[in-house]
Amino acid sequence: MTEELMLQGCLDNLSSAQEALYNRFSPRMLGVCYRYARNREDAEDMLQEGFIKVYSQIHQYKGSGALEGWIRKIIVHTCINVLKKNKKFSDSVDLVHASSIQISDNNISSMLQAKQVVECIRLLPIGYRTVLNLYAIEGFSHREISTILEIEESTSRSQYTRARALLEEILIKKKILQKPRESVRMVSIK
Amino acid sequence: MERRFDMSDFEQSLKDHADQFRMTPSKRVWNGIYNNLHPGSKWPSLTVAVVFIITLVTIGTLNNSPKHLQPSVNSATSPVTNQSKTDKKAKSGESLAFENNSRAKSSNVNQVKISTSSAKNKIASTEAGGASLSESAQNSASTILSSISKVSSASASKASKNAYAIPKPISDADQVIEHQINESIFNAAVNGELSAIPVLQQQTTEPEFILAAADLNDLYNSNMLVRVSFNSQSLSPSAAISINNDLWNKASLLRFIAQHENLLSQNTNVKVLKLHKKRKYNINWTYYVNPTISTVAVSKKTIQPDDNSSALIVLSGQPSIHLVRNPKMGLEAGAQMNVHVAKKLDLITGLNLSYSGYNNLSNLVHPTFTTVNLNDNKGGTYSKTYITHYGNGQSQDHINLTNYNIAASIPVGMEYNLYQGSDIKIDLSTLLEPTVIIRDDAFLISSDGRYYVNDPLMVRRVNLDGHFGSYITFGKKLKWHVGPDFRYQLLSTYKNIYPIKEHLIDYGIRIGISK
Hints:
- The complex is a heterodimer.
- By secondary structure, chain A is mainly α.
- Chain A has helices at about 5-10, 15-35, 40-55, 65-85, 85-95, 115-125, 125-135, 140-150, 155-175; one strand at about 100-105.
- In chain A, helix 1 (about 5-10) crosses helix 2, helix 2 crosses helix 4 (about 65-85) and helix 5 (about 85-95) crosses helix 7 (about 125-135).
- Chain A is globular.
- Chain A starts with a helix and ends in a 17-residue tail after the last helix.
- The model of chain A is unreliable at about 95-100, about 100-110 and about 185-190 (pLDDT under 50).
- In chain B, the strands form 2 sheets. In chain B, strands 5, 6, 7, 8, 9, 10, 11, 12, 13, 14, 15 and 16 form a 12-stranded antiparallel beta sheet that branches. A 4-stranded mixed beta sheet of chain B has the order 3-2-1-4.
- By secondary structure, chain B is of the alpha+beta class.
- Chain B is elongated, with a radius of gyration of 38 Å.
- Chains A and B meet through helix 2, helix 3, strand 1, helix 6 and helix 7 of A and helix 1, helix 2, strand 7 and strand 8 of B.
């Protein structure tokens, strides 16, 4: 089914078109939700809520950009809204220190690298993770993030810096990223 | 194609990898979306659910309805209808009176026939059938009719020739007097001892008078109703129908016996029919809340990590782990359904929601790595590393980490009636509760015992609780149930991979109400 047919069908509230749209974009969108969510169940709840919004607002899509981008934008905002309902998230996004993260030592080598990277992102505390997702992956500026998350712009910057440092540490520990080699100064021995 | 993670352009590399990641959603996501977008398709399931609930409520209401019916005002216009209703109820097991011998059944058939024909025709047909009526029987009939007419003079004026008003319930004072007069006859009738009414047995020829009681064991109950029916062809059919269609209470019966004592002893055969008591499963609902104090019992199995595991070194340096866990207030609420299955035994089930938890004494530390050793399915162990800033310290600036769960359960068990007084009863109940954890949070102690880590996913989603309680029930219209309650979690709070076994214990006072 072409994108135009899918769109028209969704506008006509046809379940076949809605299902086709869902089947096409849901795997990638669930991947997006999974980066924000605490677990898979939460991610699926976010996806469900996001897609309901997509179908209810599909008449607002003017075709100026890619449909996937438009859907992704709705999904991301849905994820953020879900997270913001949780008081723990509001606290953690403002906290300087991490709450707790877990790194499993088993079966790392068998995982694909994309999944590895996402799993490493998910190891970050929720506040760090959200800022990192919004800035590094979704491409929002710190000013936009401060508006979305209702925090100070400086907080967003500092959260991102810490998130990135912690993620690098995790990626190194997982052997996805190699430690940058320190420059060795050659000293002549007399 | 996979690309190596590029440190030089961290954000772009991160974005590339993250965008490649896809997951397949489960079927329930689309079902949820579809149901939301097309709510009409919900109707079949909703309808079925509503019908199911209405059916349950109807059955419950019918089972809880009192056994007696109100004494019906004698219907002057439709005795046939009344008789039919009575017969229908008898068929459906809701009748107050039914007969357990073939002769009585045939009598009922006769009564129906009588009601559908006129008095004259009936008498004529009786005579045609060869039944000769004794003179005394005819006298009896006329005496009864005149007596009833006197009692119900007010109603009689409105009544048709085929119907007579039943005697109105008499006053308490009258009841006492009449009870004294007729006690021997009435008691004999109540106890179903036919031999105790020797005088009434002397005449075995027709006419016959049948006294039927709904439940002879309950006759002393003031709400008890009895039905008196005439099976006599010698009596006026209209009188027989009229009386037969009415449900009499105890007072009315006493009065009737008083009025016709002599007549019955001389001319009629009184038969007391002992009725089968149909077993009904009385259902009773109790709604309760149960404030609890939740605490925990902990046991730790020895874990044997690999020799080269760093955890072994840590464990060897920490022979004992000291934990401080403080009890916390919890709450249970729910509805309990009692199904009466035996004299002192109820089957109980229902729906229970509970919140229980406890506090771990902890203190904030700088974020650090720590490890929890876990059992794998093959009998081995592996470790999981966490970053945490919760220490297992009991310093003055401590914080409380709350382990809690909100669970729904469907308890199933038995309730035994220990004592039954006039105003109070005491029951013992024991239950098994399969529970589903709806929401939880869990802080686990690390293997070295120095830190707490937050990992709610380690909590077992389905558990089993044992429940024991003793309740005192009192009150009349609204019954109160109060008593101590004890609950023990039979399976460990955590999954089997976590070596420490923890069982929640709740002590509470249940307060419930029922009708």
